[in-house]
Amino acid sequence: MLKLGVNIDHVATLRQARQAEVPSPLLAAAECEAAGCWGITAHLREDRRHINDDDIAALVKQVRRLNMEMAVTDEMVEIASMRRPNSCCLVPEKRQELTTEGGLDAAGQFDRVARAVKVLQGNGIKVSLFIDAEPEQIRAASEAGSDYIELHTGRYSNAAPGEERRRELDKLIAGAELAHTLNLKVNAGHGIDYENIDDLLKVPYLCELNIGHSIIARAVFTGLRTAVKEMMDKMRPYVG
Ligand code: PXP
Fold first, then answer.
1. Cβ pair 53, 47 in contact under 8 A
2. Please, what sign has the CA dihedral across residues 185, 211, 93, 102?
3. Can you give the pTM of this predicted structure?
4. What is the Å distance from ligand 1's center to 154 Cα?
């Protein structure tokens, strides 16, 4: 079964818009779990623009499975090692970006990535690398000893339906196949919505999708439980 990890960053974004107590990412996580999702994903950014250190500490205690997204920095590796989420997804991070824009350059900063993978795994944390579906990056993830890759679906999601999207889909399919031959488990995420998910289900070997923006946006109108359930309904036909 294809699993859903709900990214709750945008609940914290709304809270931070007023630097208030509400809406609570913890309550949001509980609602997502009540709807039946597999796990909760939260990105502790270096600038703490949405999720903060206290959120991570509380989420680790509360949720069934926490996937912590983080930059490959000593500070983040230290925090994750202390908090011990179930998994960490290593992402590139630039201060000015609205969201994570490209995949991690695991090949270009191999030593740093491999060191972080080792330290995190040594603390009992599964590690995933958020990378573009490029053979060089997938091989680097394998050589670095990562448990998972998370295929960056941003280009696919932004592509116009038709030829352009088909090309991006083919790259994701080839990437998943290569990762599978290298014994990497395959997740995917970024920009997935209730429409573009249908074709994405053609990508083989997927374990988990991490989805945030489209679910939180729909939840404004339907409530979080319904939005999560509707996404899980869309994922149900997946055959792998
Ligand atoms: N996966 C990763 C690694 C991300 O950085 C993000 C965005 O925070 C997501 C998944 C979720 O993307 P979206 O909010 O577009 O669904």
1. no
2. positive
3. 0.97
4. 9
